[in-house]
Design a protein that fits this description.
Layout (H helix, E strand, L loop, with lengths): L6 E5 L3 H13 L3 E5 L2 H10 L4 E5 L7 H11 L4 E6 L4 H10 L3 E4 L4 H31 L10 H14 L5 E4 L6 H10 L8 E5 L5 H9 L16 H4 L4 E5 L6 H13 L1 E3 L6 E3 L3 E6 L3 H7 L4 H7 L2 E4 L10 H15 L9 H9 L5 H15 L7 H8 L7 E2 L2 E2 L6 H19 L4 H8 L3 H10 L4 H7 L1
Helix pairs in contact: 2-3, 6-7, 13-15, 14-16, 18-19
Length: about 475
């Protein structure tokens, strides 16, 4: 049988019809099975898979249109062509509406029938491949990348499944590196909006004026560099979802406009006077306590309550260490494939080091360390040496009653040394990104820069050596 042929089931109560079709289809390199009636055909469909069914309409034991409905329900990937000696427009329309790919009358033209069969099989295969592609893409942005079997993560999965189909805003809270954007993508992927856009807004990386233009769009001439009108991300996310990463960094003026979009589902472009209606589900994430920002007056209380309709709290990795082996396995497979290397697992000694470490950078830090180790390994083995400098505890400092020993040093020098060690550990965990380190410390970037210079930390040179 040729590579492009398929398997066909002929369902007809007339022996002469079955035999003639068997000869025709076999000569065309199809694998053919025969059924003497509707019930016999359904039984064969239960025990075997077919690319296409040639189905008679008028049969004594079970009407062909009834058989068609059962095939569509139980084997939707199978194409069906109806055949009858009593062709009517009504039956043809009903057959097509019920899921048949075509409808032919006896006596048929052999060449046309073979062409119809070829087209029917190809059409079903394309539909199946498209469904599988969509399923794979949905899985890729859904739970597949959220690895974990701990009680804390199972509760997160349950909550995401429950809230995905709702229209409510969602606030995702968790430390940097815990996977807040993955959760947001999973909510979108499992919602009725999954076929529409998922738009990410990096709230903390844009100044206030640029953020508003990015969100709401602008008209030509709205500001000096507005040489043309432009749509905003809210318009792009219409009927879909819009994800605000680090919502706590958004300024008060922009917060007021966000509140209007949530309440009224409308906004105005910069420089415009017309309101634009929009239906976008808002998902926000933060690594800071928004309640504290509300108390400090830097975050609107009314916006906080609008965002905090449903709250998903992501645990840090140090609180779900039982998930570390699964995460290591996930990242090993991912980076082995990307780098054309083969790593099945890690030794118990290496795994023990990984589990003992507290992971201040959370899952993102673990991912970075595994990627670096896979890339740098020349032996096909994830050795202790490749990760020890990252995760092994430093040599213990001599302490007296829990306090580092002063050894006659001035207090200022002791405090500087302690501060230097803390900053170095943080910079190391975030791959020497001072911006991210400042976020985790809750400091302005300029303050951290000053400390780095004062303490003589050469972060730039260290980063270049990585």
């Amino acid at each position: 049988m040729s590579e492009n042929a398929g398997s066909i089931l002929v369902v007809d109560d007339e022996p002469a019809i079955r035999e003639s079709l068997e000869v025709l289809l076999s000569e065309a390199n199809y694998k053919v099975a025969l059924a003497a009636g509707g019930l016999d055909g359904l039984k064969k469909l239960e025990s075997d898979l077919f690319d296409l069914v040639l189905l008679d309409v008028m049969m004594p034991d079970k009407n062909g249109l009834e058989v068609l409905e059962e095939i569509v329900r139980s084997s939707p990937e199978t194409a069906v062509i109806m055949i009858t000696a009593f062709g009517t427009i009504e039956n043809a329309v009903r057959a097509i509406k019920s899921g048949a790919v075509d409808y032919v009358t006896k006596p048929w033209d052999n060449e046309k029938l073979l062409l119809d069969i070829r087209n029917g099989i190809q059409q079903r295969r394309l539909q199946y491949e498209n469904r599988e592609l969509k399923r794979a893409l949905k899985q890729q942005s859904g739970f597949a990348n959220m690895v974990g079997k701990s009680d804390r993560m199972l509760k997160v999965f349950d909550l995401v499944s429950q809230v995905a189909q709702s229209r409510s805003t969602v606030l995702i809270q968790g430390e940097s590196g815990t996977g807040k954007e993955l959760v947001a993508k999973a909510i979108h992927a499992h919602s009725s909006r999954s076929k529409k856009a998922f738009v990410t807004v990096n709230s903390g990386s844009l100044p206030a004026d640029l953020l508003e233009s990015t969100l709401f769009g602008h008209l030509k001439g709205a500001f000096t560099s507005a040489v043309a009108s432009k749509k905003g991300l809210f318009e792009v996310a219409d009927q879909g979802s819009i994800f605000f990463d680090e919502i706590g960094s958004v300024g008060l003026e922009t917060q007021a406009k966000l509140l209007r979009v949530i309440q009224e589902k409308e906004f105005m472009r910069l420089g415009g006077v017309d309101t634009i209606k929009v239906d976008a589900r808002i998902i926000a994430a933060t690594n800071v306590d928004l309640k504290e920002l509300v108390e400090q007056g830097t975050f609107r209380e009314d916006l906080f309550y609008r965002l905090n309709v449903i709250c998903v709290q992501l645990p840090p990795l140090r609180e779900r260490k039982e998930d570390i082996p699964r995460l290591v396995d996930h990242f090993l497979k991912k980076f082995s494939q990307e780098n054309n290397k083969s790593f099945e697992t890690v030794s118990p000694e290496v795994m023990r080091l990984l589990v003992q470490y507290d992971w201040p950078g959370n899952v993102r830090e673990l991912e970075n360390i595994i990627e670096r180790a896979v890339v740098l390994s020349t032996s096909g083995d994830l050795s202790r040496e490749l990760i020890s400098h990252e995760v092994e505890p430093s040599a213990p400092t001599h302490k007296t009653n829990g306090v580092p020993a002063m050894d006659g040093k001035p207090l200022g020098e002791i405090l500087d040394n302690f501060e230097r060690d803390v900053i170095l550990q943080m910079l190391q965990s975030v791959n020497w990104s001072q911006t991210e380190a400042a976020e985790r410390f809750g400091l302005p970037l300029s303050t951290l820069n000053s400390k780095v210079k004062r303490l003589g930390i050469d972060a730039k040179r260290r980063r270049m050596r990585q």
